[in-house]
Amino acid sequence: MPTAHRLVGRPRAFHWLVLGVLLVALHAVWSVTIPLMGAPDEPSHVVRAAAVARGQWSGDLGPAPTDGSRPGAGTIVQLPSDYAEALTLPNCFAFHSEQPASCQQVLHPPTGATVPVETFAGQYPPLYYALVGWPSLFLHAEASTYAMRLVSGLVSSVFLLWGVAGIRRAAAPAAATWATLAALTPMTLFLGATVNPQALEISSAFAFWSACLALVRSPGRPVRATVVQAGVAGAVLLNSRSSGPVWAVVAVVVALVLAPPGRLKVLWRAAAVRWLLGVGLVSGVLAAAWVALHGGVVTEHGLYPQFASPVVATREVLGLSNQYLLQLVGNFGWLDAPSPPVSTEVYLVVAGALLLLGLAAASRQRGRLALALAALAVVGVPFVLQVPTAGDTGIIWQGRYVLPVAVGVPLVAAAAVAELPAPVLDLVARLTRWVVPAVAVAQVGAYWWAARRYAEGLSGQLITRSPHWSSPLGYMPGLALYTVLVLLVGALAWRSTWSRLAQEELTPSAERAPAAVG
After folding, report:
1. Which secondary structure element, helix H or strand E, spans residue 71, and what is its range?
2. Which of 33, 243, 313, 356 is deepest in the core (most CB within 10 A)?
3. Distance from C-alpha of 371 to C-alpha of 258, rounded to nearest angstrom
4. CA of 486: how far to CAs of 424, 438, 472, in Å?
5. Which pTM value belongs to this model?
6. DSSP E strands: which ranges in 274-339?
7. Which of 258, 233, 259, 263 is nearest to 248 (CA)?
């Protein structure tokens, strides 16, 4: 006769499997909806991935630009000829929101010889590109780009699923569900489904945030699975992009502030945590070494004298802050397909309500300070990282760059909410049931707007059976499939708030009861 543990474990494992499959499917739909090279800087990232797969980790670095016509110093690598031709695919529609992707030319088969191809990502850390670039070894440029996207979406889904498991160890199930829905904006899924190292940076940051919060919020000795999650996700985050160490430090500092009195002593006595610190040190040294050897080649000095004054640069970044906030929700393509207002407003309300609830729920100063630090990091990092270099690089910041921190803010808020008494947590569960359908509408609306931008242009028809450009899924069939997938994810999210039994089925068994926020 099956034991009670097995009877409970089976549905829990099944639900996690279903959620993982749905995350992969959502990414896959995004991957085939966006035309080739239709994501930000994707041509350079595709070339970089194909080069790393062939062992060309650094290439031949060209001279730094002498004006603002180029984004940085290019790197020359040797690739099949169709990769050189693929670089021009977005030229006819990038930055032109009214132009559908039907203007793209057809790629010719490779000639059989390798040719020099330029990438502006040639000095980026190679980890992400090694993970996704291998399909280029046996597929032509067109097919390999789609394959790289699908691999990127698969890797992102694994880390996102890991992150969902982690935050459910650190917070009440309903609050964890609310936080997950608020964190995984359409922009997060879009980037995860395209060839861009931010896919790995954001998803590993989400997993790292949740593991750090679980370590400091759960009672007793740390569970080995949580330590492993923190070690793997942290190492990947550190080496995903040159900005990875910044995000890792922010997450660690916020988690340390959130830790209740005495918790750090408990963690330090655990051998697994000391092992985690060793992994973090080695990973940090590797990340720093790569940046030290490859990081100082972006531009000549003083290309943008109008931003040489810190006061002027600060004023410019401040004026763009609203755009950065909106870009956290979604501005797809080459910053030419913003999410519709309903999607943006829903996400801002959902995330803002959870933030306020977390601030109100944190009964001690430590909890409020941790949440305030996380939120201020989202606002302040653009100033810290952009203003000192604005005279050399110009104002190049985009809202998506801070998503590795932004995904952590709802998680911290959910951890703060966990200290509320049971009757109030029941109210949080009821509120979460309203959040689920609202976020579902926002997700579908954002996808629809992005798909329409490429099928018809933003001035084209909302619904048509004969679009100017069609993805392999088709315009309306793709929308229908994405809607079904979102509804299925919503059903899982809804069920996780419905009853205590359902919550336990979706919550990892270890460390369900969180510690009080200090």
Report:
1. none
2. 33
3. 8
4. 28, 11, 20
5. 0.92
6. 331-332, 337-338
7. 233
